[in-house]
Amino acid sequence: MRVTLPHDGGWTTVREHLLDRLSKLSAAELDAKLAAGDVAAPDGTPVTGSTPYVGGRVVFVRREFAPEPVVPFDIPVIEQDDRILVIDKPPFLATMPRGSHITQTAVARLRDELDLPLLSPAHRLDRLTSGVLVLTKHPRWRGPYQELFAARRAGKTYLALAPVLDGFDRPRDVHLHLVKVHGRHATTVEVGHPAPNAHTRIALVDQFVAGGPLGLYRLEPTTGRTHQLRATMSHLGAPIVGDPLYPVQQTVARDDFDHPLQLLAEQLTFVDPIDGTSRVLRSGRRLPIADAYHQATPPLGNGARSD
Q1: What's the pLDDT at 208?
Q2: Which of 45, 154, 269, 307 has the fewest CB atoms within 10 Å around its CB?
Q3: What Å distances lie between residue 48 and 2, 8, 17, 26, 39, CA to CA?
Q4: Above 80 in pLDDT, residue 65?
């Protein structure tokens, strides 16, 4: 946690200010942090109990994080080179530390497991979505690869399981206006809005029965709105299997590992921004994900390849 010391105030030491400012910490807890080196200047110099107070300076206080449920899935590596690491992200694992998800994220786990302390994502996948995720190994490569995705120069293909919809035997382009209101989990669709901001090409590529007719869909978004695919499929009347948020938020355990969202980032294609080579990155996963939908017998997806 970054703390900027105010210019005004009557404190003589940094400790005195932190004791007033960090009201949730007792004096004993703060002293323990100081002794452990958990309070430091920007250059890493430890702050002690006697460090003089100087207004305008910055100190960093290491935060304590609540224990997180362990996501019990490995993170397969699809490929890597000196610049990027491409993984097959499992469901329930956030891309990067944010909010209540800190240690159980792809970035945090891989930094530790692969000894890549400078690892960062080139783009993001929803926490519940599985599949291809690209990360950069060093800050010098972060900009070119993040710009690649921000400029929508990467082709994305997803697979999803959802109820069968009529009229999607051939690919159809769906244009919607999606709105994500701050403080609300779900993205909403503004019906009839004159300026759509989300485009997805949708095709029904297979059908099967698992407690009811389900379809295997190929989804190709050209925009990247929050929950775009989940909100779009729900709006069409075919919410993706295993979605706890659409069409309505369900009162189930947040991490029901036996019932993952059946949405897979199956393929990424792009021209490498550094060496100009054509990249085709594919997930090794198939739908249904995990064994929660074993009624489907052989995994689907053989006929859904986009190559």
Answers
A1: 81
A2: 307
A3: 16, 21, 13, 16, 8
A4: no
Place of tokens 């206006």: 177
Helix (H) or strand (E) holding 24: none
Can you give the pLDDT at residue 254? Answer: 67
Q: pLDDT, tens digit, for every residue of 214-266?
A: 999 999 999 999 999 999 999 999 999 999 999 988 765 568 898 999 999 99
- Residue type at position 182: H
CA-to-CA separations, 259 to 78, 219, 303, in angstroms, rounded = 24, 21, 24
Name the CA dihedral angle for 165, 168, 172, 173, rounded to a multiple of 10 degrees. Answer: 10
Whether the ω angle into residue 247 lies within 30 degrees of 0, i.e. cis, is yes
Nearest to 217 by CA among 301, 154, 285: 301
Q: C-alpha angle with apex 177: 176 to 181, nearest 5 degrees?
A: 135
> Could you tell me the two tokens for 271?
């021209």
User: Rounded to an integer, what distance in angstroms lies between the CA atom of residue 275 and that of residue 152?
Assistant: 18
State the sign of the Cα–Cα–Cα–Cα dihedral 287, 288, 291, 297: negative
Residues in the chain: 307
Identity of the residue numbered 210:
A
Range 107-116, long-range pairs (CB < 8 A, 24+ positions): 107/135, 109/75, 110/75, 110/85, 110/135, 113/75, 114/85, 116/85
CB count within 10 Å of CB 128 equals 22
d(CA 162, CA 264): 12
Considering only CA atoms, which of 281, 269, 278, 274 is closest in space to residue 144?
A: 274
Domains of the chain: 2-61 (no CATH), 77-296 (3.30.2350.10)
Q: Answer with the residue of higher pLDDT: 28 or 64.
A: 28
Q: What percent of the chain has pLDDT over 90?
A: 68
Element (H, E) at 152: none
Q: Which amino acid is at 175?
A: H
The per-residue pLDDT for 37 is 84
Give residue 294's pLDDT.
Answer: 39
